[in-house]
Amino acid sequence: MMSEHSSGSSASSAGNAGGSTPQRRGRTYHARANAGTPRGRFGFRGQGGSGRRPHVNVRTGYVPGRQLPTTAATPATTGEPALAPAHTPSRSHGHPRPQGAGHGHPRPQREDRGGARPRNASRSREALRRDRRNLRPPAGGFNYGSKRADVYLPPAPDEDTVRVIPLGGVEEVGRNMTLVETKDDIFVIDVGFQFVPEDDAPGVDYILPNIRYLEENKDRIRAVFITHGHLDHIGGVPFIMNRIGNPPIYTQYITSLMLKKRHDEFPHLPPLNIVVMQEGERVKVGSTYVKSFPVTHSIPDSMGVSIETKHGNVLLTGDLKLDHIDGKPTEEEDAMWTSLGKDKNLMFIADSTNAERDGFSITEGKVHATIEDIVRTVKGRLIVGTFASQFERMIKIIEIAEKLGKKVVTEGRSIKTNIEIAQKAGILKVDPKVLIGTNEMADYPSDRLIILATGAQGEEFAALMRVATGKHKFITLTERDTIVFSSSVIPGNEVSVQKLKDNLYRHGITLLHYRSSDVHSTGHGNSGELVWINSKVGARYFMPAYGFHSMLRCHARAVAQSGVVEKENIIVPDNGTVIDITNGNILKVHKEKVPGSPMMVDGFSIGDVQEVVIRDRQMLAQDGMFVIIATINLKNGRLRKSPDIISRGFIYLRESQDLLSESRVLIKKIIEDMTVGMDPIDLEYVKGSLADTVQRFLFQKTQKTPMVIPVLIGV
Asked: How do residues 328-378 score in pLDDT, each as one tens digit?
């Protein structure tokens, strides 16, 4: 049976902190009865023996003139905050119905102002202060929230154990990071980030792997190995390297150029210590030898690594595919993988991105032949939209253009940057006159022009979208233009790509894409390629990586069905799963996980305590906000004037005067009813109840749930 570690426990522990999270601070109101006097309506006896029932605030249970006793568990006596009750009384226009009150039933009492509240409700001062502390990044480290007792940070393995922990990239496509650990050394493979759709996380720029475990063990990190130059493998370097002690980075030449180019965008950071490895080079790092091996991918100088441990090698491929001819691997591929298989291989960790597809993928050579045929036969201008990281394809298009006497225009900052890197690395060798600027296009007939452009994923401000919407300064589409999408659609970008296609077709152009022609080849191997590679490596244990859980599951099933690896030796991990292999034959998957929740880059802020912030942003984006500003007389609880209301993204105020008038009346009634007999007046508590009730009222009137923000000023 394949080992599996569910992600449910991780989410639970991250959110609950083992039940030890301090609760909302509050007071306990008790209404004691005096014997011998008649009961009033709510089960209270007369005050001071007068026989007159005092006024009781039905929400708080507060009786004027009574001392507010402090419970035994208050912070003042024990240093610990009082726990909030699990039950909150039902409410009706801001007033709760007293439960079991009157006629001999238990007296109503209120043990704390806590309990369940909607997500936008105001909170106690202590809770707000705690949240501010949690959201403030500590000096020199990421913001991990409060120090949780249940964070799992296992001790270092012994000398007969090798440990593998995927910190990212096994529950998503992106933010790839895996560590391999021995007794004395930790090796990190890849430091990527993940792009996030704006609808899912408004305002978030990138998502990073959680490095809490690495920060706690930074003294044992010997090196970082980068397999290739795509952003899902190098994008996190500027945000993470300084946090883990800035260890040396081992990679190959072109990847090193891409790392340096990206790092130039962060001049405030210390320089990177980059060690350039040769293809197949074996280096000693710490007390361990590590060997690189070449892999086929969509970017040059892609490599895998083989980490030599006491009981066998741990191999990680990075992203890869096979170079093959009609399903038969080339001699170079066969020789390389056969050579690796001769080593004593303990564990194999491989790319799963295309594991859901059967057979073998289309080769890059076939794509080059298709594109060359298009360049030869197209009658008008040709615009090719592709990924800027497709070095080999861009180079091939430029070489074809030179051979056929055409000019190439590069449009998009990332394409221009990578063309410069290719020229510097010496892998692009063409006449410089082949490349021209957009301002020179008017000097050539349209059938002699090829435009390489970014934005095939429908990015709003990329070159192709600006061209499609008529906002480009130099490029205007005509019916004679042919556009080629030499890329696939990344999951999650379907809607934006469809919008781009619709905008392009409005100009009457001809559009070719990977579903209509062989104009794109993936950089990730299909299941047939992955099983073949696994059979060549011959490792005892196998862990699929680099993809969503469904992709990992399909990869694991394909390998198990092929009989290459026994089912019980296949591990399907989650982010943070701890895998120990002892003496080369004892597999242990820890029940607990190290922190694996995503870290979010939000402007200048980086941290994992962002769920509430993201939820509030989504709420604001969907239904807007409704701000109430009211001034209260702290002596009698009455409003000094009619409350002010500010609305953004909810309703148009000038056309909703009736709703505003009703809201003001309700707000005034709620505040004045709640504060009757309350001494002193608790504005925080009033704000929470006011927000609840007003939100329900607005939903009844508009079927929308804006974020209600009460601002109460006591004078």
From this structure: 999 999 999 999 999 999 999 999 999 999 999 988 888 999 999 999 999
Is 499 contained in some domain? Answer: yes
Which helix H or strand E contains 669, and what residues bound it? helix 657-675
Kind and range of the H or E run holding 503: helix 494-505
Strands (E), 48-203: 91-92, 95-96, 110-111, 161-168, 177-181, 186-189, 194-195
Angle at 543 between CA 538 and CA 549, to 5 degrees: 140
Residue type, 388: A
Query: Using CB atoms within 10 A of its CB, is residue 22 exposed (0-12), middle (13-18) or buried (19+)?
Result: middle
Sequence-ordered list of residues with C-beta below 8 angstroms from that of 563, at least 6 positions apart, any chain = none
For residue 646, CA distances in Å to 333, 618, 663 come to 66, 19, 12
- Whether 175 and 168 have beta carbons less than 8 Å apart is answered as yes
My answer on whether 176 and 263 are in the same domain is yes
Q: Range of 400's domain?
A: 364-512
Residue 587 has pLDDT above 50, yes or no: yes
If you count them, how many residues does the chain have?
Answer: 715
* Residue 680: cis peptide before it, omega within 30 degrees of 0: yes
Backbone angles phi, psi at 413, to 5 degrees: -60, -40
Distance CA 504, CA 493 (A): 17
What pLDDT digit, counting tens, does each position of 533-578 carry?
999 999 999 999 999 999 999 999 999 999 999 999 999 999 999 9
Report the first-to-last Cα separation within the chain, whole angstroms: 69
User: CATH number, domain at 390?
Assistant: 3.40.50.10710
φ/ψ of residue 712, rounded to 5: -105, 130
Q: Phi, psi at residue 417, to the nearest 5°?
A: -60, -45
Going by the DSSP 8-state scheme, the letter that residue 547 receives in this structure is: B
Long-range pairs of 102-109 with CB within 8 A, sequence gap ≥ 24: 102/39, 102/41, 102/42, 102/43, 103/39, 103/43, 104/43, 105/43, 106/43, 107/31, 107/33, 107/42, 107/43, 107/44, 108/31, 108/42, 108/43, 108/58, 108/61, 109/28, 109/29, 109/30, 109/31, 109/61
Neighbours of 179 (CB within 10 A): 22
And the tokens for 269? 């950071």
Same domain, 343 and 222: yes
- List Cβ neighbours of 371 (8 Å cut-off, separation of 6 or more): 384, 393, 396, 397, 400, 484, 486, 519
Based on the domain organization, do 386 and 503 belong to the same domain? yes
Residue type for 534, please? N
Give the span between the Cα atoms of 336 and 279, in whole angstroms: 11
Q: Are 174 and 318 in a shared domain?
A: yes
**Cα-based distances in Å from 708 to 96, 667, 705:** 20, 12, 8
The set of residues, in sequence order, having a beta carbon less than 8 Å from that of 293 and lying 6+ positions away, is 279, 280, 303, 304, 305, 306, 336, 340
pLDDT at residue 18 greater than cutoff 70: no
